[in-house]
Amino acid sequence: MRSDTVKFGNSRAPHRSLLRATGLKDEDFSKPFIAICCSHCDIVPGHVHLDKVAAYVKQCVREAGGVPFVFHTIAVDDGIAMGHAGMKYSLPSRDLIADCVETMIEAHCFDGMICIPNCDKIVPGMLLAAVRCNIPTIFVSGGPMQAGKTSSGRSVDLISAFVAAAAREQNKISEAELHEIECAACPTCGSCAGLFTANSMNSLCEALGMALPTNGTLLATSAERKHLYRWAAHRIVQMVLDYYRLGEGHGLLPREIVTQKSIDNAFILDMAIGGSTNTVLHMLAIAHEAGVPYNMSRIDDLSRNVPNLCKIAPNGPYHVEDLHNAGGVYTVLGALARGKPGLLYLDCPTVTGKTLGQNIAEWDIRGENPSPEALRIASVRPGPPGAGPMSVEHHGKSIREITPSELGFDPFDCIREVPHAHSPEGGLAVLYGNLAPRGAIVKTAGVKPAMLRFVGPAVIFESETAAYEGIVHGLVKAGDVVVIRYEGPKGGPGMQEMLAPTSAIQGIGLGDSVALITDGRFSGGTSGACVGHVSPEAAEGGPIALLEPGDIIEIDIPARKLNVRVSEEELARRQARWSPPPPRFTKGWLARYVKFATSADTGAVLRSDF
User: Fold this and answer.
1) Cβ-contact 280, 428 below 8 angstroms
2) Radius of gyration of the chain from Cα atoms?
3) Mapping DSSP to helix (H, G, I), strand (E, B) and coil, where does residue 529 land?
4) What are the Cα distances from residue 231, in Å, to 238, 352, 362, 384, 608?
């Protein structure tokens, strides 16, 4: 085992002495050393309970015959960092996390790893480290937050609070209404209740093969998560033992699981459920780390063949808890396997020890013979506001015994079958044109049909903060195209999310009449005609830097086009006059990040070619 490097031989007596100080006994040195990579911190609701999760996983690894060691990474709360300079640190934290996890794994020669992330950049940061270190690894998240309820029974979430804040700025709602939404929107621990970036990535981990079934949709408060954590603990110990018995080539290592085919499967799921555009940024980076050729064109080719089966918040009325009750990730994959045979790569290995196709047969609750366990776990229910992690029992019966009226929604509308898809194409699209020669991303699942084609004059802002202030104070009117630039990986720096401006557009009632383009990115909570990741970015002299107020911008999502009505000759003249603005940071981590960051169309990976 890898850990033998620090455990055996006379020269390792000092190492063993240090390990004994942590509580190890003689009998522990023959067992696999399992890293439990956690990201607990008190300021992130999605992570505030992960210390309890890690403690339980640690206990279960011991029971399974492994020796567990817990360590922690940082975690940025994107919602709290939103709307000020703190958001510039969010995307860069992904690479810090990857480097820190790599450091711990390699420095201590661990044999296997369980990753316990939950939110935003922490999931992809740990995935980057997993494929880099390439030891047996399982991902098991902290679980999603349940949706909140107002006194009227309306379901709300974090995006409801952002939209309400903008509406209050315009006096469209009262102070009391804003306060009620603020207090109701985030009722428990867990990753925010919609299909935002955190829940998108945790769900994609299932389709990618790196997480066990129900990882992405089973509520943080559900007692059934204990079963998931116990399963992960026992499975990782077995994976390590199998790896050292069988060697490479048996689907036990991250680089054997994360392949071009499994990345396709992850994107297929993403497009079917209408997940966050940030998944594009992160999955491109993970592919790069794994040495897998992957680009934006491949993503768009997939999108044209994947139907959109779900409208989960912010794209529709449902929340992740509803997606889970409707069957979760594997029921979505089952619907695709039934309705589009040959679309998914069913032979891909997964951390269950079975193929994706075998997992679908067992965990698709609409399938011919789902497991009793799958039917039981699908029947979880939310708890009261403030419910603790792993505390709420399920309904006590199979999901097939629960009627739609008891659930409060129609599960066959929450997860539609292919013949009844919301659209024949997926929830993401890649646009190209003279404004985005290397591509841009739009979440089509969040765009209303009337906004799929849009033409309007550019209203330009040089930062996210300036855009928010301009929108809420009346500088944007119906028919405009808001342009937010110098917010890319280098220009921001850090490519901060544009949730405040997009929520402001919705909050002041312009969601159906204003489009937005940016070289920054969006929160998974963004909806509307919002085009991000415009590449090359403004800081690199991309065409978005050359726009002038009033330029007419054309967005044609069905045709995959993003253009400005300016001649090539005029763009060339503007290019000759352009010079990059001075850097916003000249010291600290972000100043270093700018030197290494690459474009969004490559996943904003850090350069290493020097």
Assistant:
1) yes
2) 24
3) coil
4) 11, 9, 15, 27, 37
Under 8 Å between Cβ of 552 and 518: no
Query: b/e for 492-510, b at 16 or more Cβ within 10 A?
Result: bbbbbbbbbbbbbbbbbeb
Nearest to 285 by CA among 296, 275, 276, 274: 296
Cα 286 from Cα 599, distance rounded (Å): 15
Distance CA 335, CA 417 (A): 5
CA contacts within 13 A on the Cβ side of 94: 31
What is the pTM assigned to this prediction? Answer: 0.95
> What type of residue is 81?
A
* 552 vs 162: CA distance, rounded Å: 29
547: its two tokens: 């726009």
Residue among 119, 121, 107, 97 at smallest CA distance from 37: 97
Strands (E), 352-421: none
- Catalytic residue numbers read 523
pLDDT in tens, 245-302: 999 999 999 999 999 999 999 999 999 999 988 999 999 999 999 999 999 999 999 9
Helix (H) or strand (E) holding 112: strand 112-116
For the segment 168-206, what is each residue's pLDDT rounded down to a tens digit?
988 999 999 999 999 999 999 999 999 999 999 999 999
pLDDT at residue 530, as a whole number:
94
Burial of 558 (0-12, 13-18, 19+ CB in 10 A): exposed
